[in-house]
Structure to design on (341 residues):
């Protein structure tokens, strides 16, 4: 009887681990989730006696001592560091309002990494949450990002951070199956970029519930980036709310795209779906511009503030190929009032 009871408990615990491991992009794979993991602590101004084998002064010391599946917990402070994450860990800040990773003193080391503050390379199932990531104010030949995820990393979750004052990208996504959620991104060159390389044609990432504002270029840029879901974002005060280049089969749903010079620009992109978005107060460039063989994109029940009679279809005028030949898309049933997003 004891053997049967023990076996039953083991099966329940094992199945529980499997459910937890599959419930979110950033949870580790099953073989990692079944291990006993450690937490390492970082504090930049603790008493000298506090530091030991699990307590460190810098974030990189914590990461270097961690193993796959471990957590590096960072107490409040300002950390002037360049961070490299090359293992499957959770990097957690005490509070995004008072735990800063600052790139003010990062200098270019002559590598391909440029001035990016956090670089995630050859590491999947990573979580970064609870930080203000700020101040990449110089330019190199690279994309100098607040967080740069390389194409060798997958299933990375970037959530609940503040990312600001970045010369290029707030978040740069290569690889696949990432999640960027609940971040505030402001005063950057681009809010979030998603790019797939040739040998990884599908991104399959989720970009949701972010506030992206005061961006010099694009709020969200998809370039050769397919099968993403972009939903419930507030994108405002950008030159372009969204640019979609050479990308297909993305779902863009329930986003506030407001107060941008141009709402959405589309080129060489097909079979994308724009459902139930708010297009409000675009500037002189208008809500949507599309050209260059951008066919079979679908528009459904979006709200357009420049639609005079909302019971009529919304006509979107673009360009056929490289020639100045008009091409039309239609939102056949536009929303009569804006959505609450």
């Amino acid at each position: 009887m004891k053997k049967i009871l023990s076996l039953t408990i083991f099966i329940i615990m094992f199945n529980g681990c499997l459910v937890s491991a599959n419930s979110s992009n950033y949870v580790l794979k099953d073989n990692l989730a079944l291990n006993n993991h450690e937490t390492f602590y970082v504090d930049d101004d603790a008493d000298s006696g506090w530091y030991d084998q699990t307590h460190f002064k810098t974030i990189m010391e914590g990461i270097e001592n961690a193993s796959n599946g471990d957590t590096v917990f960072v107490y409040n402070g300002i950390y002037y560091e360049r961070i490299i994450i090359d293992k499957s860990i959770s990097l957690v800040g005490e509070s995004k309002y008072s735990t800063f990773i600052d790139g003010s003193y990062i200098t270019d080391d002559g590598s391909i990494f440029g001035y990016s503050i956090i670089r995630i390379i050859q590491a999947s199932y990573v979580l970064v949450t609870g930080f203000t990531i700020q101040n990449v104010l110089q330019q190199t030949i690279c994309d100098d990002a607040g967080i740069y995820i390389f194409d060798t990393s997958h299933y990375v979750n970037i959530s609940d951070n503040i990312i600001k004052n970045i010369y290029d990208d707030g978040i740069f996504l290569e690889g696949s199956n990432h999640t960027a959620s609940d971040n505030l991104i402001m005063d950057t060159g681009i809010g979030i970029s998603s790019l797939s390389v040739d040998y990884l044609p599908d991104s399959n990432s989720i970009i949701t519930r972010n506030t992206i504002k005061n961006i010099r270029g694009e709020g969200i840029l998809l370039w050769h980036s397919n099968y993403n879901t972009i939903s419930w974002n507030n994108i405002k005060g950008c030159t372009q709310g969204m640019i979609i280049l050479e990308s297909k089969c993305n779902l863009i749903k329930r986003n506030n795209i407001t107060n941008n010079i141009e709402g959405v620009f589309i080129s060489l992109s097909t079979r994308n779906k724009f459902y139930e978005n708010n297009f409000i107060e675009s500037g002189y460039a208008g809500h949507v511009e599309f050209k260059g063989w951008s066919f079979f994109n679908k528009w459904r029940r979006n709200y357009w503030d420049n639609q005079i009679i909302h019971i009529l279809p919304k006509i979107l005028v673009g360009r056929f190929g490289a020639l100045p030949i008009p091409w039309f898309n239609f939102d056949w049933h536009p929303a009569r009032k804006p959505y609450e997003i």
